[in-house]
Design brief:
Mean pLDDT: 90
Number of domains: 1
Largest sheet: 12 strands, mixed
Distance between the termini: 36 Å
Number of strands: 14
Strand content: 35-45%
Length: 218
């Protein structure tokens, strides 16, 4: 009996996935609806806007399954059935854009990381592209400026200012699409996707639709 238990335990250890080793990095996202807004504006946009998003991760340091990911990036383009942040009536479709600097094993790890971070939103990946992934943050402390470019996805952000207030009751109405990130709302000076693979493309300017910050996977 002891031998059987020992063999079973060894089998479990060998088959268990190797977790992430302290991954830290930059995170940005934007959607096709305001996320820093008041309830009246958000309710007016429900299921008319906000069904699409771009999400980007750039790893500063860390590894997944013993594969180092320092300096690499991955981007997700999401097309949902309903406004993101609301109850979904169908599965979302997504495209992943993986850093072309990554080796085959690193690409697999980046895909796994993005899927783990994105959860159900990235449960149905219909296409994986390999391309340059650029994600840069302004070095200023607490600044909302970031630039993301990857294949057909583009996002540029800036800080929210007093002139961005409309109703006076704004807040971070929709939380980030990824749990556990440290991010602040920002204005998407440009948010666009002109690639292929999902039914719609878009190009927006000046929407209070972005989050800029950091993520950690322990």
């Amino acid at each position: 009996m002891k031998r059987i238990l020992a063999v079973a335990l060894l089998s479990l250890v060998l088959s268990a996935p190797v977790g992430a080793a302290g991954i830290t990095g930059q995170y940005v996202e934007a959607r096709t609806c305001d996320i820093w807004t008041g309830p009246c504006f958000a309710n007016a946009e429900t299921n008319f806007a906000g069904k699409h998003a771009v999400m980007g991760w750039k790893i500063d340091k860390g590894s997944l399954d013993n594969v180092a990911l320092d300096g690499l990036g991955v981007v997700a383009v999401v097309a949902a059935s309903n406004t993101l942040g609301q109850v979904q009536t169908g599965a979302a479709e997504s495209i992943l854009i993986v850093d072309k600097k990554a080796s085959p094993s690193q690409r697999e790890a980046l895909i796994k990381l993005a899927k783990a971070q994105g959860g159900e939103l990235l449960g149905k990946v219909i296409k994986v592209e390999v391309a340059d992934v650029k994600l840069d943050r302004c070095p200023c402390k607490n600044d909302g400026c970031a630039v993301l470019e990857a294949a057909g996805a583009k996002l540029e952000t800036r800080c929210i200012g007093k002139h961005d207030t409309i109703c006076g009751n704004e807040s971070a109405y929709y939380p980030p699409l990824v749990k556990g990130v440290q991010a602040k709302p920002a204005v998407a000076s440009e948010h666009s996707y002109k690639g292929k693979g999902i039914a719609e493309t878009w190009k927006e300017h000046g929407r209070r639709a972005a989050y800029v910050g950091t993520f950690t996977v322990r």
